[in-house]
Amino acid sequence: MTSIKKTSVNYENKLQLGSECAQVYAALMLGGQWTLAICCHLAGGKLRFGELRKKIPAITERMLTLQLRKMETNKLIVRKVYAEVPPRVEYELSESGQKLIPILIQLDNWGRQHQEYLQQHA
Amino acid sequence: MTSIKKTSVNYENKLQLGSECAQVYAALMLGGQWTLAICCHLAGGKLRFGELRKKIPAITERMLTLQLRKMETNKLIVRKVYAEVPPRVEYELSESGQKLIPILIQLDNWGRQHQEYLQQHA
DNA sequence: TATGGTACTATCAAAAATGTAAGTATTATG
DNA sequence: CATAATACTTACATTTTTGATAGTACCATA
């Protein structure tokens, strides 16, 4: 199954959660397993499908496609297709996606701090 | 199923993702569907189990328990049990969890901005 | 005519997350 | 003795996400 079922309780919950507070809405936008990883790599500039695949070796083509589609739908990224053969497709952060970068940097710092915190209190 | 299977590819992927960059690690910490919502409510101070349940009406007792347990394991929150009857349990953000608050505020702002961005580019 | 390169898509299966409903332990109070 | 209040736990079902594998379309080039 690739898309969420619009009659499920889970779907209702996600809607409600997203409208409750905006950070939860944000989390829904950023929620895929690979979404943040993709954002990180795109923070350095536009990349082609194949380049992303090389930068994230563990991801399968299917998951990369799915995540990119979702991110495109959510307008985190912009997809540019060039009419060439072999095909060329480039992905880059949208205007709104770029505004995430400083937050990602802070999350990065927090993550490091928290890892230390965990070790100290183990 | 309640806990991740330590022999699965998915588990390997999460480990690898988490060690790749710290913001992805952070996202794993914050990843549950209700985790951020709980953090938001605890940002205002400690709360009892039943209080949290009232503040997040859609959550079930089971999910609230699971999320709180995970957050406790990850040391985002601290759980205090009082030896009383009927029982009393209080949850509050850990020292490290409190450091998330400014980031949550920024995420909140970004979320609002992004909602507008989506509407403008619909 | 066969091959290669790119960015996918389709199908099926497995795993993970979440939801539903019912039950538990404790003791004060009526 | 029955009930109420609180914070859970258990068993099971459903939904959602992710993985594995194979195949497609396009056209330049050998």
UniProtKB/TrEMBL annotation, chains A, B:
An annotated Gene Ontology molecular function: DNA binding
Domain of life: Bacteria
Chain ranges of the HTH hxlR-type domain: 21-119
Entry keywords, A to Z: DNA-binding, Transcription, Transcription regulation
PANTHER family: TRANSCRIPTIONAL REGULATOR, TRANSCRIPTIONAL REGULATOR, MARR FAMILY
Designated name of the protein: Transcriptional regulator, HxlR family
Organism: Chitinophaga jiangningensis
